[in-house]
Each structure stands twice: as C-alpha cells, then as structure tokens.
Amino acid sequence: MTTPTLTPYRSQLKPGRDGFARLLRAEWTKFRTVRSWSLVLAVAAAVTVLISLLSASGSSTTGTGPKVTLGPDGTHVNDTFNFVHQEMTGDGSVTVRVTGGLKSSRGMPEPWAKAGVIIKQSTKQGSAYAALMVTPDHGVRMQWNFTHDKAGSGTSGDPRWLRLTRTGTRLTGYESADGTHWTKVGAVTLPELSKTTQAGLFVATPMHTNLSRSFGGGSETAGTTTAVASFDHVGLRGGTAGATWTSTDVGAPADNGRNQPVNGPAAPHPGTTKVSADGVYTLSGQGDIAPNEDVPDLVQMSFQGVLVAVLFMVALGALFITSEYKRGMIRTTFTASPHRGRVLAAKTLVLGSVTFAVSLVATAVAFPLAQHTLRGNGFKPPEVPELSLLENPALRAVVGSAALLALVAVLTLAVGAVLRNSAGAITVVVILVVLPHILALALPLSVGHWLLRLTPAAAFAIEQGATYYPQVQHNCLPESGCYPLSPWNGLAVLCAYVVVAMALAMWRLRRRDA
C-alpha cells in the first residue's frame, strides 16, 4: 500500500506587507498583550533582587582577620619575604648570580617561589618596587608593584646572573648566562619611588596548597614552606661607601621583624641569612610578593538571584515562540510575513531588548541593596574594597548579568523554533545552562572546569569581581565564585551557542512548513 503524499499547508490569502518595522511592532504587540508573559518577566526581575538580597543577608564576617596590606594602586597584596638590603641613593644598580636554583623545605619548591634582586621604596609592606627573579617553573621574571609580570628566558635551574638598574624613576632588568652578555628583560617607570630606596637580594615562597575533589567529597591541605636560595658575585652601585648589608623579614610581626645583621644570631622568625667565607649569600624565607587573591568576591556575592531568574527567562523564551505553534497562530504570522527569517529576527530583537532592559533594572537595583547588606554584615573597607555601581568590575557585572539573562531567553527562543515544543525547549536549555553550574560543585575539579568552559554556564563568569593574576597559583573553586574563563570570554561562550541555535532555527523554519 502506498502512503499518500501530504501537501504542506499554504494559505491562499494575499501576503501582507512585511516591512521589518511592522514586524517589530507586531511582535511587541503580541508580547505586551499576553499578560502571563509580562508576569513571568516581572517575577524574574523580582527574584533577581530578592534572592540576591537574601543571599547577602546570609553572608557575614567578623572582620577580625589578618592585617590588610594594600599595594600602590590599592590592590590587596601579600608582601612578606626575606630581604637583604642596603640604601641606594639616586641612580644605581644591584647585580647577583643566583646559583643552583631554588630549594624548598618540602622537597620540590613551589612553582612561583622566587629569588633575585629587588629595588623597593622601603621595607614597609605595600611600598612600590621592581624585582628581577628566577622561579622553579616559570623561568626568569620581572615583576613590579605586585600586579605586573613580564617573562624573561625560560631558564630556571642553571646559575643565572640578574641585574636591576635605576635611572631616575626608570628601572630596567637584565639577565645573563655568563655575567658578560646581558639581555634586557623589561623596563618600568615607578613615579612612587623617592630618591632613597632599599636595594638588595630577596627570597620568598607562597604557601603550599593541595586540593583534591572526587565524586562525593573533597579535601584541601595547606601549609607554610621555606625556600632557600644562594647568591654570589653580589654587587651594589649607588649605595653608601662602607655600608653593611641588613637582613629584614618584611611583613614579620612587630616583635619578630627587627632588622638583623647578616650572620647574626638565629632569628625567631623563619627568614635567615648566612654568608660564607667566599662571599656566598644563602637566604631562606617564607611569604610572597604578589596580589592577595584570598579576598571575598563581593561582586559575585551580589548576584546570586541571577541563576534563579534564568529559569524564568527560559520559560519566557520558550513560550514566546512555541505558543504560536501550539495554537496554530504561526500560520497567520507567516501569511502576514512570508519572509520567515525576518519574523525570527523580529521576535529575537523584541524578546532580547525587553528582557535585557528589565534585567538591567533588576541587577542595578540588586547590586547596591546586596552591597549595603554585606557591609552591614561586616564586609567593610579596608578588608574588602568599597565598590561603586558605575565603576568596573561592578558595572561590568551589572550589565553583563542582564545580557546573560537576555541571551538565555533568546537561546530558548531559538531552541523552541527548532523543537516547536515548550517542554522540550525548556529541558534542553536548562540542561545546557543550569545543570553544568550545579554539577561543577560536585564533580572532580578538572571535570567541573571543563563543564564551565564548554557549556553556556561559562557565562556566569561575567559576575566575577575578583581578578585572578597569572603569576599567582590558585585553586579556582566554582563554589567560591571562581570560573576558569575570564568574564567576557565566558559570556562569549553563551553568545556562540546563541548564534549556532539561531542558525539552526533559521534553517528549520525555511525547510519545514508551519
């Protein structure tokens, strides 16, 4: 028996005028006249504000943590290290050879342990500096004012000559394999430097941390470690004639941080300095000279309602297209406007514009309310910075979170156009956007990171307010608001999914009749 061929429905009515402006007006009229859609949008905005406020109310701190150190630009920093120094007046240079690389009390040194030469405004924590160093895993580096880092050669273990020169406020770093042929690593201008600075040798190492997570649980261990480095051919130009070297544990407690004469009695703090008869300086020390990333991310903590609001945007995006298929009204729409691509574009523009505008108001209201609540719960300067709505990263997070919600609505619209079923579209988008965000909290860390790189859930990185610097090794925990991609790169992943889904929807509309 042969199956009769069905002829697709084609209306005999004369097509209407389908100018794009008319289409926009028609789609806007549909949206505003369906009260349930407006109600869903209003609930999404209210949820964004209320959940963010409730989450902020449940977060508190005693504010009795360790003393906060601020760098020259106001960044929270770690500035604790063993420093062997002399005064440098005006222009000059400090030169050493680091011999034998870095060693550690734990066996293998930390990847970002460092030893080298430094010119620093003073021994006060947070003061301006530039340093040239060797590291175990990252070769020679020039770093300055905590947040800046420039790579030199990849050499780590071989003896390496280092030289840091000062001309006015310009500091230039050089490295050499033989002490004769020098290669420039980098140069920087530090206007904060006064005429008299402290110049010399240093060693530091960050804490040792080990994080493991498997199905059903995880563990984290952390502890201090001591780095040891040896220097010879120590030379200082620009110092005071006849001056002696002084060893200081920068950042040590007041009762333990006294300046120690080189080869003096053992200090009660971890840093030690010894000089052999043939002029080899051996320094040991703990601490780090780097940005401090252990600061609560108050920006991310102010947008907890966005994840819940996503569910409402998913429902709204699906209903905006699938309801027309369910009731057969899509045939009327395509009769009035036979250019189906224009219809989809008009729906996308209306839905995206309305959801973005409403979401922007919601996130702009949620942020200051959550910030006020967090400050009332102990998150105050200087332990945590004061954040302004109109400055980054807060402004980026407010606008980006609104864009995230609008893009999720558009993504669901496109999936709905492909599947033509509300439940199916909602399920697919929830699995893509919400489920990876939840699974990343329970799965092994490496698997969770890949989920937050490859799925639209990567877009939640736009809420991050903390800056993660490449010269600081850190454990990026999703439950702490850390995402493996940068904020804009994470949002770009969602944009890519939207583009692909829209292309599939366009193809589907043109290939299959209503």
TrEMBL record:
Keyword Transmembrane helix carried by entry: yes
Coiled coil: none
Molecular function GO labels: ABC-type transporter activity
Ranges for region Disordered: 249-276
Transmembrane spans: 37-56, 301-321, 349-374, 394-419, 426-447, 488-507
GO cellular component, one term: plasma membrane
PANTHER family: INTEGRAL MEMBRANE PROTEIN-RELATED, MEMBRANE PROTEIN
Protein name (database record): ABC transporter permease subunit
Organism in which the protein naturally occurs: Streptomyces sp. R21
Biological classification of the source: Bacteria, Bacillati, Actinomycetota, Actinomycetes, Kitasatosporales
